[in-house]
Amino acid sequence: MSTQTLPIINVAPLLAHGDATSVANAIGDACRELGFFYVTNHGISAETLAALDAASRKFFALPEAEKMKIEMAKGGRAWRGYFPVGGELTSGKPDRKQGLYFGEELGAEDARVRAGLPLHGANQFPDAVPELKPAVLRFMDEATRAAHAIMEGVALSLGLDAQYFRRTYTADPTLLFRVFEYPADDGESWGVGEHTDYGLLTLLAQDESGGLQVKTPDGWIEAPPIPGTLVCNIGDMLDRLTGGVYRSTPHRVRNVSGKSRLSFPFFFDPGWRAEIVPLPAHASAHDDSSERWDRANVHAWSGTYGDYLLSKVAKVFPELAEATR
Predict the structure, then answer these.
(1) What one-character-per-residue DSSP string does 239-265 give?
(2) Residue 83: which of 73, 93, 301 has the closest Cα?
(3) C-alpha atoms less than 13 angstroms from C-alpha of 207 in its C-beta half-sphere
(4) 236 to each of 161, 169, 258, how far by Cα in Å?
């Protein structure tokens, strides 16, 4: 393990619409060097995080039969709900975690739902823990505001106007949220194996247990929880848009704390039908598939974000993907 640490960036000027030059420069440096950084003053309240943590722990403590009342298979094409330990795959191997999948809360009248788009629809919430629903929706609202603001910093760091991404890719973003519980380490299994995220930006809240590791040119480093911060990282689509100048960095989780670990990743991604086209200044990119964890060349791919996301998620839940074709 390397002793290198992730930078910590105060994003308050972005949320306050103040002078964000220094913040944008810091974000740009972090995206070029590691693809990961911590953010402070992100606008997600301590009360929101505490309520989410408490409700999530209460849910995961339920009997398995009670949790399976909202299993993902019952969510249909919306792909929402609960999966048990071992129910999610990374690189074809079961992860040592259980979790809940959520997304933007959409009613049957929404055009995307009427069109039958996968990963769009209503969430499943447990009757046994009614406080989970308001906690999840409040967190998602606050995280969405934070993500829009941080993407303004990313735009400025690339020499674009602050609203570039909101105008081109995130006016109607794909919003996905997970709540994961990692049992204590069994000494053999990864909570989640090496992978990169698929979209633009991930915001991660984590409890005090730690376990997140980030791959750097000098080796793997720990990304321990720091009070008051979120971990922020960029995904494959920002890698593609910038021709690999901003890298989607591999990461993994092993819970060695000896106790249960909770994490709350929020994925802020392009709209489902958005065509992902490299920025003009970054249209040339080399084939880096030999360096990537999945040996895929994200720069050779073309299409909509929905196509890309569905191809990736189908590998995580192959049986569910087959059932919702």
Answers:
(1) HHHTTTSS----EEE---SSS-EEEEE
(2) 73
(3) 19
(4) 22, 14, 32
Sign of CA dihedral 90, 91, 92, 95: negative
Integer Cα distance of 205 and 113 in angstroms: 29
Cα 204 versus chain centre, distance: 7
Name which of 173, 176, 200, 190 is nearest 298 in CA terms: 200
Residues facing 195 on adjacent strands: 251
* pLDDT averaged per 10 residues, the chain (length 325): 84 96 97 96 98 98 97 92 87 86 95 91 97 98 98 97 96 96 79 91 96 93 96 95 93 91 97 92 73 74 89 80 68
Under 8 Å between Cβ of 276 and 303: yes
Give per-residue pLDDT as tens, 249-270.
999 999 888 899 999 999 999 9
**Identity of the amino acid at 173:** P
Residues 324 and 76: beta-carbon distance below 8 Å: yes
CA torsion sign, 91 to 94 to 99 to 103? positive
Nearest to 64 by CA among 41, 45, 83, 89: 83
Q: Which two tokens stand for residue 99?
A: 């979790």
CA angle 58, 64, 69 (to 5 degrees): 90
Q: What is the DSSP string of 73-135?
A: GGGGGG--EEE-TT-SEETTEE-S-EEEEEE-B--TTSHHHHTT-TT-B-----TT-TTHHHH
Contact (Cβ atoms closer than 8 angstroms) between residue 181 and residue 83: no
Angle at 4 between CA 195 and CA 228, to 5 degrees: 80
Q: Is 197 left (phi over 0), alpha (psi -120 to 50) or beta?
A: beta
For residue 133, give both structure tokens: 């629903």
Best CA proximity match to 235, nearest among 265, 273, 206? 265
